[in-house]
């Protein structure tokens, strides 16, 4: 049961740096999600853990032992690939049993003829056959054991890939965007199945995804990455409520956190289109700030009732809830000037209100729901009384 | 699509269109292949002689009867089958090994590949003449080397126990680069992720090859084996130029024998019968390929 430690881990292809000085510890039994946009280096990191990519510099420790040069099979990991990477000419049974057969494989089995006999013998050995069938039953593959991957559906292939990873009972599971080739409904189902699996086997999972919903629903901890650099390491709640910078705030949550650049003068906040209102809670120092608030924390009110006058631009009805995109308007100029960035401010409200596009409205918030960022460094500025979740 | 163009392809036009496209190649094949083939089949049933090509009369299966009674025919058949089998095995093995060697990038790879393709790029006649010189008993490179090592000179092309191997060596040298090209293309389409999955699953290099790479390139290997086999059955230039079928028929394949029967013995009818046997042999190989290919596809879809 390894604890993984990364010490200044770096990877570069030629002069192109993919991962720069990555430091983190993955504890035993964790479900760690590596989250980031495509090309941020998260898959490369996973491949380095598996031993499929070489580490350029820095150290990777398995329980304190330097594992940089270990062969993949020495690491005792299971890898689930995005494309499933099943062996196309083998039956489902042979696919699942392959890691077990390879574990029992001796050097002299490579001799011609001996090879074929040995492999058939191993496949039929009671231990391997029993473990294969046991895993297949768990993942409801028992009726498919004698079929080949070409005749399976995407979801079934996904299950076979999982079964092959599970059968050897490794201590570390590495999953590289395993759900991205499935349709939306199946993805939701497999998501909960993988979560359930993690609870059942109690081993360490490292899961790579660019889908923040997968990260939020499955992870015990999330590492958010961008351009090869760690942006934040925290629990899903921590990432959601207290994003470390504007990148995390924008990347996590759908719709993402509303970020409005403001200029502070005393207690008065002014946007670039000359809208201004008085803030009632604690305020950080500094003049140029970014005001961040989650869509569900905003109140959608009638014209004149809230501090921020706005106009409805988009209405997305999702049934149980409705997402309304508004433009902040400046009442001082007759309600026609738009925000400079032209960014919409999203509000999420439950139910299905009768809201029309171009309707006049206003928005308001509670001071403790606001997250502040420095406009220059884009990092979060902690405010003592404003965020009780921090304490 | 403009309304005019869809009108052009509507109704009868649409039904006829495929046949219009098929017609030119079909006509070409009919004139230059099916007709000569049919004529050859007919010739094999007559006693036509080269001195009077239009004067033959129908003799039924007499030519074939004559062939089956002739011990030389069985030698020829033997040599042909053995030649095809040995060139397929050696050529495909050598080509596959070179493809595996050259598959991974290394400094100087393009140059190495160019050199390895040399044998295939050289015209057969030129290659045969080069080898003829190298095999030369008095001044050839091989005997020169043997002599400098203090060994006896070898009659590469003129002794019955060496001629066949010498011819096979040239053929393999000529065929292996083609096999290498085909296998290389197949190797480069082996999905990396599957190979990596096998590595994570604990397979060593040989097991990865056997479990992932070999099954993936097997269809290509089979196809290239078919091609090499058919080429060997109908290969003429190399054998004719190097040995002419001799000594004592030890390198006399069906095609070489056809030429000899037709243009030295002037027996067009018997030569045509030889040709028919060669055709059957080639079709047999193609049939085996077709059947195994179908079976594999069915097997994979299970």
Automatic annotation (TrEMBL), chain A:
Residues 4-252 form the ABC transporter domain. One of its GO terms (cellular component) is ATP-binding cassette (ABC) transporter complex, substrate-binding subunit-containing. It is found in: Cell inner membrane. Keywords: ATP-binding, Cell membrane, Membrane, Nucleotide-binding, Translocase, Transport. The keyword Membrane applies. SMART domains: AAA. CDD domains: ABC_MalK_N (cd03301). Its main location: membrane. GO terms for biological process: carbohydrate transport. It is a peripheral membrane protein. GO terms for molecular function: ABC-type transporter activity; ATP binding; ATP hydrolysis activity. Belongs to the ABC transporter superfamily. This is Carbohydrate ABC transporter ATP-binding protein (CUT1 family).
From TrEMBL, chain B:
It is a multi-pass membrane protein. Its main location: membrane. Pfam families: BPD_transp_1. The chain crosses the membrane at residues 16-38, 81-102, 114-134, 154-187, 208-232, 238-256, 268-291. GO terms for biological process: transmembrane transport. InterPro entries: MetI-like, MetI-like_sf. The keyword Glycoprotein does not apply. It is found in: Cell membrane. Residues 77-289 form the ABC transmembrane type-1 domain. PROSITE patterns: ABC_TM1. GO terms for cellular component: plasma membrane. Keywords: Cell membrane, Membrane, Transmembrane, Transmembrane helix, Transport. The keyword Transport applies. Belongs to the binding-protein-dependent transport system permease family. This is Carbohydrate ABC transporter membrane protein 1 (CUT1 family). It comes from Pseudaminobacter salicylatoxidans.
């Amino acid at each position: 049961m390894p604890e993984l430690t990364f010490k200044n881990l770096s990877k570069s292809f030629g002069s192109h740096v993919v991962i720069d000085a990555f430091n983190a510890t993955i504890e035993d039994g964790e479900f760690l999600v590596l989250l980031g946009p495509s090309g941020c280096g998260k898959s490369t990191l996973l491949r380095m853990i598996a031993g499929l990519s070489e580490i350029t510099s820095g150290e990777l420790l398995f329980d304190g032992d330097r594992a940089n040069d270990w062969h993949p099979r020495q690491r005792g990991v299971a890898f689930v690939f995005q494309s499933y990477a099943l062996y196309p000419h083998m039956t489902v049974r042979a696919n699942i049993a392959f890691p077990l057969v390879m574990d029992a494989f001796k050097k002299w089995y490579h001799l011609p003829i001996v090879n074929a006999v040995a492999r058939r013998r191993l496949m039929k050995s009671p231990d391997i056959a029993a473990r294969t069938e046991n895993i297949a039953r768990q993942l409801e593959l028992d009726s498919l054991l004698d079929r080949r991957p070409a005749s399976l559906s995407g979801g079934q292939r996904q299950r076979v890939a999982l079964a092959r990873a599970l059968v050897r009972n490794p201590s570390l599971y590495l999953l590289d965007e395993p759900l991205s080739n499935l349709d939306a409904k199946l993805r939701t189902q497999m998501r909960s199945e993988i979560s359930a699996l993690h609870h059942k086997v109690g081993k360490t999972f490292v899961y790579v995804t660019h889908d923040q919903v997968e990260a939020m629903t499955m992870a015990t901890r999330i590492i958010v990455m961008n351009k090869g650099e760690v942006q934040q390491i925290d629990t899903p709640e921590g990432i959601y409520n207290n994003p470390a910078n504007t990148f995390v705030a924008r990347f996590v949550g759908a719709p993402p956190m509303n970020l409005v650049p403001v200029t502070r003068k005393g207690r008065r906040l002014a946007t670039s289109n000359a809208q201004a209102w008085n803030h009632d809670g604690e305020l950080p120092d500094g003049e140029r700030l970014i005001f961040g608030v989650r869509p569900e924390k905003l109140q959608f009110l009638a014209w004149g009732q809230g501090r921020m006058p706005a106009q409805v631009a988009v209405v997305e009805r999702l049934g149980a809830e409705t997402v309304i995109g508004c433009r902040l308007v400046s009442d001082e100029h007759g309600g026609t000037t738009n925000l400079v960035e032209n960014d919409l401010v999203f509000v999420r409200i439950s139910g299905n209100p009768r809201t029309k596009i171009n309707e006049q409205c206003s928005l308001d918030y509670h001071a403790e729901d606001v997250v502040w960022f420095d406009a220059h460094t884009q990092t979060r500025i902690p405010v003592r009384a404003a965020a009780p979740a921090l304490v | 699509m403009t309304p005019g163009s869809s009108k052009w392809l509507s109704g009868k036009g649409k039904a006829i269109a495929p046949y219009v496209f098929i017609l030119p190649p079909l006509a070409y094949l009919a004139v230059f292949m099916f007709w000569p083939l049919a004529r050859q089949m007919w010739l094999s049933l007559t006693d036509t002689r080269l001195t009077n090509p239009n004067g033959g009369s129908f003799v039924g299966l007499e030519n074939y009867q004559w062939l089956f009674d002739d011990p030389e025919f069985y030698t020829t058949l033997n040599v042909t089958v053995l030649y095809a089998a040995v060139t397929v095995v050696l050529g495909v093995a050598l080509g596959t090994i070179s493809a595996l060697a050259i598959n991974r990038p290394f400094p100087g790879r393009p140059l190495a590949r160019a050199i390895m393709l040399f044998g295939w790029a050289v015209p057969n006649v030129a290659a045969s003449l080069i080898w003829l010189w190298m095999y030369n008993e008095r001044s050839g490179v091989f005997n020169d080397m043997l002599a400098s090592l203090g060994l006896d000179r070898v009659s590469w092309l003129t002794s019955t126990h060496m001629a066949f191997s010498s011819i096979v060596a040239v053929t393999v040298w000529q065929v292996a680069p083609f096999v290498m090209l085909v296998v290389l293309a197949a190797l480069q389409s082996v999905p990396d992720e599957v190979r990596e999955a096998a590595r994570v699953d604990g397979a060593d290099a040989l097991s990865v090859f056997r479990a992932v790479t070999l099954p993936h390139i097997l269809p290509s290997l089979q196809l290239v084996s078919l091609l090499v086999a058919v080429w060997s059955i109908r290969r003429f230039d190399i054998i004719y130029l190097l040995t002419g079928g001799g000594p004592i028929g030890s390198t006399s394949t069906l095609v070489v024998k056809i030429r000899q029967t037709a243009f030295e013995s002037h027996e067009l009818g018997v030569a045509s019968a030889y040709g028919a046997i060669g055709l059957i042999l080639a079709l047999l190989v193609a049939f085996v390929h077709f059947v195994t290919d179908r079976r594999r596809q069915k097997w994979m879809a299970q």
